[in-house]
Amino acid sequence: QVQLVESGGGLVQAGGSLRLSCAASGRTFSTYAMGWFRQAPGKEREFVAGISWSSRNVYYADSVKGRFTISRDNAKNTVYLQMNSLKPEDTAVYFCAAKEGVVSTIAAEYGYWGQGTQVTVSS
Questions:
Q1: What integer pLDDT is reported at residue 45 of this predicted model?
Q2: Per-residue pLDDT tens for 1-46?
Q3: C-alpha to C-alpha distance for 2 and 28, rounded to whole angstroms
């Protein structure tokens, strides 16, 4: 019902910035809560940031608070993750996800996922 495609990943030096985009298809995009998750090798998938359909509620993992910003443009069916002051520990595959209802920090509650985009931060 909704397809998600991430882009914008790449290799960046520590302290640098990247902006990830997630393009969604489907007429109901604006009614979905959206989230970003990441998974590093050998680690569980973890919550990064989430945003409500109206953009009035946003949530961040403590590890990225103050450095990352999630936003969305419902007219463009796109959600973004601006990542600043990147650290090597931010290296992971980043996934965007969508769910009906309220924002959640739990990956299992999201019903739709993108394919992921690699972010590598070098030191």
A1: 97
A2: 789 999 999 999 999 999 999 999 977 777 899 999 999 999 999 9
A3: 8
At 48, which amino acid appears? Answer: V
Q: Degrees (nearest 5) of the Cα angle 56, 61, 107?
A: 85
Take residue 39 and report the two structure tokens written for it: 């998974």
Report how far residue 43's alpha carbon sits from residue 61's, in angstroms, rounded to the nearest whole number: 16
- Sequence-ordered strand ranges (E) for 15-114: 18-25, 32-39, 46-51, 58-60, 68-73, 78-83, 92-100, 112-113
As given in the structure block, the two tokens for residue 62 are 């403590």
Q: What is the largest CA-CA distance in the chain?
A: 42
Please tell me what DSSP assigns to residue 21: E
